[in-house]
Amino acid sequence: MTAEAAGEAYEGGLLDEPTTADLRAKVTQAWREFAAALAGLLPTLQPGSHIDLTLDPTASGTGTAVYSVSLRVLPEGVVEALAVGNAALPQEFRMDRAAVADLVALGWSPPGVLAGSGDSFGLRSAQDNAAQLATIITRTLRDVHGAPHPAFLVYLVHDEEDEPIEASPLGTARHEPSIESSLSLDDLDDDEALHAALAGVADDVVPLDERVRTVVATMSKTTVDQLQVDADGDIGIRAGSAMVFVRVRDNPPLVDVFSPILTEVEPSEQLYVKLSELTNRMPIGRLYCAQDTVWASIPVFGRNFQAIHLMLAVQVMTGLADELDDRLHGEFGGKRFFGEGDKPTTPKSGDDSHRPGMYL
């Protein structure tokens, strides 16, 4: 079978490939879950409570540019929201005229219009109108600020005295106190610690999916109950600037660790050949193109399951995604899961369509 034919087989589902699920549908569902969680949280907050939502600059590569939205509950059931304006952003990361227009179309007032908004875009809504407000906030973070997935957001919920408030997770967004957490073996680099943290994971009496969730929760420094599992049964985890999914298959018992390396790419013979060459050089796993997405996949055997094997697979996948997305994007175009093309565009000198508007 040629490389092109193999790619077509994957696209047609002939090999029952578990990682060819519609990526757009998975991401869309994750945003819906985030919006629903935010809508459920807002009505429960007392006056003076705050929610701070930020696109993690470490993961997004925006450095000192912090795209954020803050919400504050006012008396009489009013919620005030503020979104970062260009005055608080470095020149190269400022939003262009189209982005500003999108914010206004969503219902935001330009900086200075809403009393007390200062250099931020402002919005006020009734607390019992939480669903609509959550939709506006979600679309702002996703469509204007360029967050590719809720897992790239960090948040903090606190009261009027800035004391943290215990709240249900906002989908796959990360609670800010755990922002320094990472998928790493550093804290589990000796057999004793590994055994203590993952006791019972190797027990074949425990179902494979439960063992896998225990491993992922341990690496993410969270609890099994707080893991986000989508409609396909995949665990979605953010690792650095990569998005990694973990799926458990029953027959045969297998754990697949996979990541979208490149999306919206045009399949070609040259692409299939390149992916074949790269796969041949990988000690484990493979790269392939399904529909318009290049995927990386590393399988972990479910029989005689070893937690350390899954942890290593996640670490390898993270490094692989970071290394290959730029290389393949430069050669074949397309769109990285989070790359320069996904960030708000930088104004171009001499281009009226990107010239700063009156509120920038």
From TrEMBL:
SUPFAM superfamilies: Type III secretory system chaperone-like. Residues 29-153 form the TY-Chap N-terminal domain. InterPro entries: TY-Chap_M, TY-Chap_N. Residues 208-339 form the TY-Chap central domain. Residues 335-360 are annotated as: Disordered. It comes from the Bacteria. This is YbjN domain-containing protein. It comes from Actinoplanes utahensis.
